[in-house]
Structure formats: C-alpha cells, structure tokens
Amino acid sequence: MIRFKFRYMLKNKQTRLILLLTLSVSLLITLIGLGSYVRYREGLDTELNAPNVELLQINMDVTNRAFREADEKAVDLSYRTEMMSYLNAPVSRQRAEAAEVQQLLASAAADKKVQSVAVADFAHKSVVSSDFGYLAKWEEAQDSAWTAWIQEIEKRPLLIKRRWLGSEMGDSSTELLSIVRPVMADGKAAGAVIVNLDYDLFFSQMYTHLSSQQYVYNLDGELIYPKLNTGVRPSDMDAVIDELDVRPFSYVKVQGQEYMANQTFSDVTGWRLVSLVPMDHMLKNVKLARNMMLFLSLVSIIVGCSAIYYYNYAAFRPLRRIHQLLNPASGGSSQGSLFDLEPVIGKWVGEYQRRTFVAERSLPELRSKYIQDILNRCIGIKEVRTKWSHYFHDWSADSLTVMVVSIDRYWQWAASFMEEDRMLLKYALQNIMEEVLAPAWRMVCVTAKKDSFVVLLQPKDEAADAGELRLDAEKLIEIVSRHLNMSVSAGIGPEVQDISALEQSHAAARKILTYRLYEGYGRVHAHAAWDKHMKADMEEVWSAEIIQGLQNGDGGANAAAVVKWASLIREHGVEPEQVYRAADHILEEILDMTAARSMDPPEEINNYNWSQVQTMDLTDIEQLLCQVTVKIAEQIQVHSHTREYKRVQDMIQYMEEHMQENIGLQDIAGHVGMSVSSVSSMFKEETGTTVYDYLTHLRIAKACELLTESDHKISSIASMVGYQNENSFIRVFRKIKAVTPGKFRESSKSSSRYADLPKPRHSGIFEDT
C-alpha cells in the first residue's frame, strides 16, 4: 500500500518538483551550517575583541584623566612665583617664604585622591610639605624616600613612581603613586614638586569585567596594577607581554588555558594596559552552535518529506473534488493536470479577497491613507494610479483641487486646552468641513500637521468653479468661528487634471496660506504668485542691530529695531516665507545666546519650534519679537554687572587691542591675573566658545575690513592681524569664509557691500554661513 501511494505521488510532476526543491533546500541548509561553523570563530573573535579594546580604552581615559588632574597641580605649582621665591631665598629667609608655599600645597592637597604635596629645595636640602610644613633638613622628614630619585628628577621633565609611605611595605602602610615635576631655574633643576596620590583611590575608578583580568605596566616594565595576586604568575605575564609585543591583540596560552590578550598604550603616562579574557566557555558555544545547525538540517529534511507526503493526500483531495465537479464527464477516472484549476480558483479567491478587504476596512480610511502616502511620497506613480482606480471609482475624471485649512496662532490656541479637548475640537472642525463642503463637493480630509488639514476636492456639478469653492470656504470659516470660537485660515491651490499632480497643488496651497502674514486671520487666501524678496543685506543689518542691542542690554533699542524691521516688511511686501525664515532665524539666535550664557529663555519661546511662527501674522510676530528681545535684554543687563562678565570683557578688549601680536592663552591669563585653566573655563562659560576660536574670528573679521577698505597686500594684512605666515592666514581665512582672501577682495569690489558679510558678534561667538 505504501509503495502504491509513493508511486502515485511521484507520477505527478508538480509533486516531483516540490520534492526536488525540498531536498535541494535541505542540502543547502546543511552546507551553509557547515560553512558557517568554519567562519563562526573568526567572526566571534572579531565581535569579542571590540568590547575588550573599548574597555581598555575607557580605563586608559580614566587613568589619563586622573593623572592629568594631579600633573596639572604639579605643573601649576612649579610655575608659581611663591615657589621661586622660596627656592631662591637664603637659609635665613626660607622659613618665612615657606609659610606661603605651605598654604599653596595645602590647597592643592585638598583633593581626596591626593595624600600629600611637597616641594624640595636641592640647593639647601630643605623641604616643605602639606603634612608637616617646613623642615630645614629633609633627612628629618617622615617621608624621605624620594631623596633617592634626585638624579632622575634632574634628567627627566616628569617622573612617576609607585612606592609605600616611608621605605618599607607594612600592613598599616599606605601605598602611593608619586608624580614629580622639576622646578627649573637658569636651565637647571633648582627643586621639585612632588604630588603623592593615594594608590587605591587613583585606580578605584577603573572599570572591570567579570570574565577579564586587567594589568597596568609602567615604562620600565614594572607591574603597577593590580597590587594583589590575580592567579596569573608574573613569569607567565612576562611571556604574554613578549607575545603581544606592540600588537593590539593576540591569542596566548597561560597554564594550559587559552586567552584573548588585548593591550593599549597611554600617550600621557606611557603605561601599557593589558587584559586577558578566557576563551574556553566561548568555544563551547561555537561547538554547540555547530551541532545544533546539523541537527536542525536533518530535522528540516524529515519534516519536508513528511509535509510533501501529507500535502499530496490531504491538500490535493479538495482540488480533485473540484476538478470532478467541473468535469463530470471524466467520472473521476482520469487524474488530469491541476493547472487548469488555477484560473477558476484564482478568480474566486481574488473576488473574495477584494470584497473581504473592502468589508474589513472602511473606504474613507483607505482614501485618507492614500492621500497621506502621496503627500509623503511613499508610493510610486504606478501604485498611485492603481489605487486611484480602486478607491475613487465613483469619482469622475474632472479636475481636482487641494485646500489647506490651518488653525490661526496654533501654539497659543493649543496652550489654552488639554490634549483631549484639542482632539475633540479638531474632530468637530473636521465634521463641520464635511457638513459644509459635502453637498457640492466630493472630498477627502486628511490631518497633515498638528495645526492643519489637507482637503482633496472635486466638484459634483461640472459647472462649479473656484469662485464657488472660495464662497464655501468663507462660509466654513464663519461657522467655525461662531460655533467653536476658533479662528482658521484656508489656502486654495490651483486645479490639477490628474492625481499624480496632487503634491504640486498641495505645495502651492501651503505657499498661498502663508499670505496670512499680511492679510490676517480668518480669511481665504488664493493669490497666484509673489515676486518680492527681502534683500540679503537688509536681513543681515536687522539681525546685527537686534543682536547688538541684546549684547548691550538695551531693551528699548531692541524693540525699536523690531518695529523698524516690521515696517520695512510691510513697506516692501516681502515674500511671506522669507519673513517667516527671518523671524525663525533671529529666534534661533536668541535661543543660542541664552544657552551659551546659561540663561532661561522667555516663556514665549520656552518650547519654540519652526512651526510656531508659521501660523502667526506679521503683527503677532512683531509683538512676539519685541517681548522676547526686551526680556532677554533685561537679563543680559543684569548679567553685565557680574564680575565674570567684566573679566571676560577685559579679555576681549585685550584681544582686540593686541590681535596683531603673537598673543596666546598664557598672555591673556597674565593680563587678567588668573590661571590658564580658570581663564579657559570662565571664557567658555560666558561666551560659549573657546579663547582660540574667538581670537581667530576677531582676526578674520579685521582682515575682511582691511581687504575691503584698503589696498594692502595680503601678506601685509596677514601680519597686521597677527599671522606671521601668509599660508597659515590663507588657510584659516578659507576655512571660515569658504573663499580665499583674494577672492573675497574681488567679490567685495564688485558690489557696494561685502559679498559674504560676517555675522554680527553675539554671545561672544562669530558665526559665518
């Protein structure tokens, strides 16, 4: 019986084809499984190596950061005038000079990671420490182990030593990491600053991994971390170091176990960081994966063959019955080919699917989704036409029109209601649109943005035109205003003859709606074009005037500048989109300024985004800008009386007066009597930029002025703004201005103003776009 069934199954060519494909696919799965096993370990090695290298890099950054903090203390102390006064003082005055030095050392040792700080005088062999003060003889100090390093200190600019407090390691002793910087006088080491770090606290911030072991070696190959025995003998670690050499990673064997060894080098301390990751449990997973893939391949063959057998007798039985019903003359004696059933069954199934699809989902939802897909460019032209014939079969071939309905002053309106109330009002607005427009127009309404709806319209009467649509839109606006107490505006796009041009009509309607800027709220806008543009220099001058007023804290000047700008806009009739961009630009500049100065933005723009101004007219934009600029000016006026602000202004004035000189951060710090690090942090906090970037933009701005208003050679101008090398000046100028100085001069001479006007200074930053 089984042999008969098998022979019957193989007689059908479709069944033989399915069987062949099943066996081929199963064999392919088996080959892929075996091939994947061979390459699996290589891929595993790559995936495992990356996180361990990143962990080493993180730990290197942690130790570098902690080391820099301590080293900066040593360097700063070595350059203090109090140190030189102490080292140059005679023996009779050293104790008096040491008092001020000890105060500096005590301040430097306030960090909990710093155990102590000391200064040694090589000439008089005296020492001052943050712990015990001044000693005329350093042999009397409790901690004098560093005296053995004097010859190394005189030869090296930096010395790092791991040691115990005192000379011997004990249970109650403290392990230290000493950083030594020589104090130079007349080209020789007159003394040294010694910063002693607590070893445990220094390395306590390192990140560890449960499956990895980490080691730190210094330049001399001595083990610095960890200080406890981790199970790997020192001799074995020496072999690991020799095997790695300078390679980033390698596979090594330690005591019969295989490890993945990774290493990295610190460019600050010169230390070598090494990690070991055991590979035994990882390889076990590789073998398990191989065996599982082979097992699954075998199971897939068995399941495939079983499925073919069952499919032939269970799935094909109804088809044979259908074949008998369609061909009663055959009497069921002839098996025939089942391919002739495909057209009939395909027709039945296709009709069933179409009816089921329409029944399950409503046609309005399908149409809305279809319009959204067109506007978002999610479907191609072929699909657009196909779905149009399916979803809009009851529409005619007449022209189509897009109308955009937008809520005026949306952000102000939205702030007056809760989210649920806003959704309810929008739903009511959509129902009113359908009630007003549906009698004369076929329509589909889509929620495009938070503030607006897109309505696709087609007249039911061929005689209807754009004039009737405008009347219906005005009626809609009046009803919404009366019943919902809401102001809306509408923009009507041009008629299009094909659904493929829907996007162009929508873009035109959006642009037409921007005329709300001049014509006000609650209107229907249907202008055809706009050919007036704001001059680029007009916007630049206005922005510069606003920013300058903000910097000076002059609220009255800011309000006057805004009113003047709005008057010019009304006088010249500038394109609305350009006005919106200009207003958005100045608001973004104000937000950048508040962020750079760590100020809170006014509540009017606390959650500002680009669409906020797009639903406002010119009067409201003018009022918004006046309110915002006056409030910002008041904050800046208060801030301008702070000590930090005056210090930064002093730095800026110094840079402006000496930009032609080869000045740097050290000169600016000396001018204001502060340390380099304090100057950098204060300037960055107050201006939002670095001292170097600010000075560079000052010089380039001055160079632009000289290029435009003088005939000096470029090499002379480079020297006049502080660049000793002409090529360096040209490179920096081109980086900031995107053109060379020569091209800049040529373009400026061809017009009455700069071809590329520099942005006005605001928040201490020069920006050029």
Automatic annotation (TrEMBL):
<dbReference type="Pfam" id="PF12833">
    <property type="entry name" value="HTH_18"/>
</dbReference>
<feature type="domain" description="HTH araC/xylS-type">
    <location>
        <begin position="649"/>
        <end position="747"/>
    </location>
</feature>
<keyword id="KW-0238">DNA-binding</keyword>
<dbReference type="InterPro" id="IPR018060">
    <property type="entry name" value="HTH_AraC"/>
</dbReference>
<keyword id="KW-0472">Membrane</keyword>
<keyword id="KW-0804">Transcription</keyword>
<dbReference type="InterPro" id="IPR018062">
    <property type="entry name" value="HTH_AraC-typ_CS"/>
</dbReference>
<feature type="region of interest" description="Disordered">
    <location>
        <begin position="744"/>
        <end position="769"/>
    </location>
</feature>
<keyword id="KW-0805">Transcription regulation</keyword>
<dbReference type="InterPro" id="IPR041522">
    <property type="entry name" value="CdaR_GGDEF"/>
</dbReference>
<feature type="transmembrane region" description="Helical">
    <location>
        <begin position="292"/>
        <end position="311"/>
    </location>
</feature>
<keyword id="KW-0812">Transmembrane</keyword>
<dbReference type="Pfam" id="PF17853">
    <property type="entry name" value="GGDEF_2"/>
</dbReference>
<dbReference type="InterPro" id="IPR009057">
    <property type="entry name" value="Homeodomain-like_sf"/>
</dbReference>
<protein>
    <submittedName>
        <fullName>Helix-turn-helix domain-containing protein</fullName>
    </submittedName>
</protein>
<keyword id="KW-1133">Transmembrane helix</keyword>
